[in-house]
Amino acid sequence: MIYRHHIAPPRAFTQFSHDLIRHPRLSSDAVRLLTWQLSLPEGARESLSRTAERARIGACAFTRAKRQLKEEGFVHERRLQGPGGHWVTQQLVSNVPLSAAEAAKVLARGPVHAPSVPASAQVAPGPRIPAVGDPTPRPTDGHPRKDPGENTSHRPAGPDGITPETSEAAGEPGGPGSPEAARALVTALPRLSPDLRRIPRGMHDELARLVSAWLAAGHTPAGIRTHILRGLPDDGTPVHRPGGLLRYLLRDVPPTPDRDATPAAERPTRTCQPSRLAALRECEGDHLQATLFRPAADETMCRRCLNSPPPEGSRAATPRPQSFTPSPQML
């Protein structure tokens, strides 16, 4: 049993309909937001979002409550351009459901309040100052003058037909074996794998010296990158110290692969050693599976088959199990 006690407030009260408070399709947050707005003094310009903050209604709950009020016709919004070019949003809150046409008539009777910040005046563009020199066409072809390093797979040949491979063989300062090429390779390592993105900058000089040793030994940049990729973990293990891992992978310089120009037909073939199974022979006797034996001479059957010759026919018939029939005495 429940008892109710009610005292009419002498001041600061608002009358609401029971249909609004007991609306079946409005949540408690929607009813609280609507009643809070309707209880504000006339002329107050508090927005719905500000009311939700004062009522301690969360962002998701406010979005859901506002959607419910708009679907039921208690809240209407429209955007229009006011004086000065500013766009303003007008919100209409009603204690009874209104249609879109009725809400538009009510909003049309009210003034459009401009924001407090005035609009900035439109400034006409000033006269342009021409650039020095004659206009030149935009370059659309040719290769860049500076070597892009390791960013391209097919780099253009330099003057006199010198390519990166020939400069490496000649030992030119700008070739792949130079310190600049080693530093460029180290700088491009973070793009090689996500595990190498956080290489300390203080280790670039040390790694460049290690890469220079690899290049001086005859290894190509592609071979160095392949060696680094093979050393990275492939089971998803995170690399916490990529600089230390690169130092470990580049510490020892292996010899370059021997490029033998001898044709395959002229290379000496390896002779296979005789296997232990080469001296065995398969028995021609009656066996469920193939049986190997070591013959003493030219016999074709093992010792077991020679001691117990098979019955008539090439192979003995496999005995079938006889069915068991119980006698009347056993039953």
Radius of gyration: 46 Å
The main β sheet shows up as: 2 strands, antiparallel
Protein structure class = mainly alpha
In sequence order, what are the helices and strands, one letter per element?
A: HHHHEEHHHHHHEEH
Bin the strand percentage: 5-15%
Helix content: 25-40%
Query: What spatial form do the alpha-carbon principal axes imply?
Result: elongated
Number of separate helices: 11
Distance between the termini: 79 Å
Q: Can you describe this structure?
A:
With 331 residues, the protein is mainly α. It is 30% helix and 5% strand. The protein contains eleven helices and four strands; from the N terminus they run ααααββααααααββα. It has helices at 18-21, 28-38, 48-54, 59-72, 100-109, 164-170, 179-187, 204-216, 221-231, 242-250, 303-307, and strands at residues 75-81, 87-93, 281-282, 292-293. The strands form two sheets. The chain has a two-stranded antiparallel sheet. The chain has a two-stranded antiparallel ribbon with strand order 3-4. It starts with 17 loop residues before the first helix and ends in a 24-residue tail after the last helix. 12% of the residues are buried.
Features:
single chain, 331 residues, mainly alpha, two-stranded antiparallel ribbon, 30% helix, 5% strand
Topology at a glance:
Elements: H1 18-21, H2 28-38, H3 48-54, H4 59-72, E1 75-81, E2 87-93, H5 100-109, H6 164-170, H7 179-187, H8 204-216, H9 221-231, H10 242-250, E3 281-282, E4 292-293, H11 303-307
Antiparallel strand pairs: 1-2, 3-4
Helix pairs in contact: 2-4, 7-8, 8-10
